[in-house]
Amino acid sequence: MLLLAHGVAAAAAPALVRALGRRVFLLLAVVPAVSFGWFVAQAPTVTGAHARTLTETVRWVPQIRLELALRLDTASWVLALLVTGVGALVLLYCGWYFAPRDPALWRFSGSFVAFAGSMLGLVLARDLLLLYVFWELTTVFSYILIGHNPERQANRRAAMTALLVTTLGGLAMLVGFVLLGDRAGSFRVDAVMAHSPAGTVTTVAIGLVLLGALTKSAQVPFHFWLPGAMAAPTPVSAYLHAAAMVKAGVFLVMILAPAFAADPLWRPVLLVVGAATMLLGGVRALVQDDIKLLLAYGTVSQLGFLIAVAGLGTRAGALAAVAMVVAHALFKAALFMVVGIIDHSAHTRDLRRLSGLPRRMPVTFAVAVLSAASMAGIPPLLGFVAKESVYQAFLDAAHDGTPGMPSLATTLVLAALVVGSVLTVAYTARFLWGAFSTKPDLDEPTPVDRVPFGFATPPVVLTAATVVLAFCAGPMTKVFAGYDHLFPAGGHAAYLALWHGLGTPLVLSVVAVLGGVALFVVLWRRDTLRAPRWVPTAERVYEATLRGTDRLAVELTGRTQRGSLPFYLASILVVVLLIPGTMLALNRTWGGHYTWFDSAAQVPVGLVMAAAAVLTVRSRRRLTAVLLSGVSGYCTAMLFVLHGAPDLALTQVLVETVTLVLFVLVLRRMAPYFSERPLSRGRWLRRGIGVLAGIFAAGFAAAATGARTGRPVSDLFPQAAVEYGGGRNIVNVTLVDIRAWDTMGEISVLVVAATGVASLIFLITGRGGEQNPAEPLQHHEPVSAWLRAGRTQRREDRSIVFEIVTRLTFHTIVVFSVWLLFAGHNGPGGGFAGGLMCGLALGVRYLAGGRRELDEAAPVDAGRVLGLGLAIATIAALAPLAFGGQVLQSAIVDLHPPLIGDLHVVTSLFFDIGVYLVVVGLMLDIFRSLGGGIDADAEGESPDLPGSYADLDLDPDDVASVTQALR
Amino acid sequence: MTVNVLLLLVIAVTFGAGITLLLERSLTRIVVGTLLVGNAVNLVFLVASGAAGRAPIVDPDDPSPMSDPLPQALVLTAIVITLGVAGFLLAMAYRSQQLQGDDEVQDDIEDTLIMALAERDEASQSWEDDTGGEPDEEGADR
């Protein structure tokens, strides 16, 4: 419900921005604020030593057990409070941060609220896969937010780096989740926890999941994306660094720790990486001049601290981790807001140019001092409380010993953390000194604008929480018990307190503060604050990886994508010959009964066909090659006849005839000979591949025949054809009834092919013949003219005898084609053959009288014929549904109309009529395009037919010279 | 099932010839190659459908074995599709003739450009080298 509200708010935000400008943020802040209130109200249920877990499940796709399963326990409650509370404050802050007329505000507001919603979903997810979805959503939205100003190249890079690094970890984590869920038998977080499987697979899975957590939380060596993320507007940094995104990794460690802390990989990885990150981040924070960047590296350092504590996996460690997460969120958000205020008021973030601010912005100064003190761990603030408990937890762990980490190692980690704290104090001091001190080398204080009241309110609220919560240490111990009681009790009872008493933790705190101050003073005195630039090795590795990938892609594409069609085809064929060819050679289904031939007539036909094929390859004239391929086609038809397939033979003869006519129509515009190319080596390679492919095809045919051992499915067809299909021609009944779905697909392909042909020739519209604008035919021509070609064709192009014979036979052929259509159900024929016949009749009309004659014979748009045919076929297919039948079912109707006699009608006839019309449309389209269209082009009647590169905005000379230069 | 050796040989020759033509650059040859390959494949169906017989038209008076009707239905659609494909390829050949003066399939210019990049050991055109510059929420690159 709350998630939904975030989604709606995110979707509505861009529209609201237009209406309200930047005040929209005040309205948007209501959504997380209300959520915050609801979570506070749940406190009695989900917190404390006897906490219960609230769950809610919305079924989504039950078939694959995918559901929106949510849960709320103490850990997710704490995080949800931070996400919504800090979220609401940051949104309020945005209301003053942005310029009133910022043009990118619509995008920012929407993606920010969506980001907050994803983060909330992440902490509430009960299902690991759902958690992953929200995890990646935060990645995507952070990409948009970091790239808020895409005009700077550095920003684009920063956004892309954040996206790549966190997605890499996310993908590893997904694999880990799948492994874990598979081991546990469920993807529910609670089920996985209850199962807590162990073993090598689990260790691998945990390693992958931790990789995700470490990348998201910017741990060494993936820390480098986070400082770049400050390319985002400061409110985003405040949210992303404090309460969202980077906390996701810590959160994941927190919820998995109770079950998996004992894993051999867990503690060594988390403690060592965390400590290293804390040290590295601290050192780098110390050398920054930009106070925002200083804080960003400070976040890296603090995250290392958090990961180490959360990964400790003891009850005291858990308590300390929760406290530290809260403390960090409060002070870091407040500090970033302070930076934003300074940036807006003083128009710089460079600590060398900031001077004398406290007097001009006292409230901001107070906020900064308190929050920074909390960061440094100075009492009486929440940061101190949390830090003390962290020290105590590590001391206990070193004393008690934990699986996977010897006591000495734990002590060393603690030492590293204390050194890290020294660095923390030092960079905190540098932050305060840099932002607020009065620099002697700057003559006058930095000029500052007035800070609006509302702008400063959110950080004040956060700082107040830092102070107040420090004095609520006792109640907090009770509240967080819901989380830390998931761990076994340690040697000492763990509790949070402002005053732990005089003990080692206090000593360590004092050491950290004094050491930090001393370090800062030493560095400041010696004026080495601008320390030498570190060599950012992790960035270099990342950079080199990206560039290497890009180069690899270029090399690989250059090698494999040659852009040459013969090369691609040859590659495919060679693979076919190598892999399926080898399999074919090794298979054992050569059985079957071999015979030389079925009938003696097959021998001469077969020999002629083979000879035609060989001669086709050798021919140099286009027409010869085409005619020889026609011979091959007619021979195929004869082989069909000899095999007992009259329908095939009929269709093949018709198609072959049409194809020959088409070839001649097109070839009349081409050079008679193929161009000579000196490619002897290539030619023999081609022939070699051809020979092998031929052997492969024959072997395939033999193996396929030999492999047929069961009874053919078509044994049942004769009976089915008569009983259900109502026809005796089994092939035709198969086409229109038994396997009508195939035919349906096929005529759709024909429509596409016809459209393609027409659009290649008539680049614009105008395949409709008479609809063609260049046809003012009726105006100057009597409709009754019998031999129309007399006015439209040149005399030398005419053949009167041919024209007259054509006119006389045309109607007979068309009637015959209709007869073929109707007779096809019981004898050879059918929609395909009938359509081809009718198309041939039209083609002959065209050949005899030219394109005007064709328009006269078929005064319709070919597209309409195609569409009508497809529509009739579809209606015939769907009509049975209206009568309670199935799609494409056919019924047999016997009518007894007077005069005509008995009429035997099968409804699939209508489907066949559709097929007939589609084929006629195809033929009409082809003759109009390849016949009439090319004629018109030759006569120069269609000047708008694009005929050169000019229409593509390319200069042919340029293209040629580019191609030449590349060679 | 009975295997017709003669038809196997015809298939081998026709298919091989068709493939050889397909590997050419001239679109006319490619269309002819497609037709030959189409014929050969249709014959494969014929061989695999078993022995020859009488036409598959139900006739209660004639008990002699029929040829298998199912492959014939498949081949029938294939023949008509081949016509559509041939028409389309011919239209393409014609366009190619119109635009370039011949019907040869040229190498792709974009691919040639990428090959040139690979030879010069350069990154792709969309690659942005790190030219420095600090990320900031305001302003643009100079």
UniProtKB/TrEMBL annotation, chain B:
<dbReference type="Pfam" id="PF00420">
    <property type="entry name" value="Oxidored_q2"/>
</dbReference>
<keyword id="KW-0472">Membrane</keyword>
<feature type="transmembrane region" description="Helical">
    <location>
        <begin position="6"/>
        <end position="23"/>
    </location>
</feature>
<protein>
    <submittedName>
        <fullName>Multisubunit Na+/H+ antiporter, MnhC subunit</fullName>
    </submittedName>
</protein>
<feature type="transmembrane region" description="Helical">
    <location>
        <begin position="30"/>
        <end position="53"/>
    </location>
</feature>
<dbReference type="GO" id="GO:0005886">
    <property type="term" value="C:plasma membrane"/>
</dbReference>
<dbReference type="InterPro" id="IPR050601">
    <property type="entry name" value="CPA3_antiporter_subunitC"/>
</dbReference>
<feature type="region of interest" description="Disordered">
    <location>
        <begin position="119"/>
        <end position="142"/>
    </location>
</feature>
<dbReference type="InterPro" id="IPR039428">
    <property type="entry name" value="NUOK/Mnh_C1-like"/>
</dbReference>
<feature type="compositionally biased region" description="Acidic residues">
    <location>
        <begin position="127"/>
        <end position="142"/>
    </location>
</feature>
<keyword id="KW-0812">Transmembrane</keyword>
<feature type="transmembrane region" description="Helical">
    <location>
        <begin position="73"/>
        <end position="94"/>
    </location>
</feature>
<comment type="similarity">
    <text>Belongs to the CPA3 antiporters (TC 2.A.63) subunit C family.</text>
</comment>
<keyword id="KW-1133">Transmembrane helix</keyword>
<keyword id="KW-1003">Cell membrane</keyword>
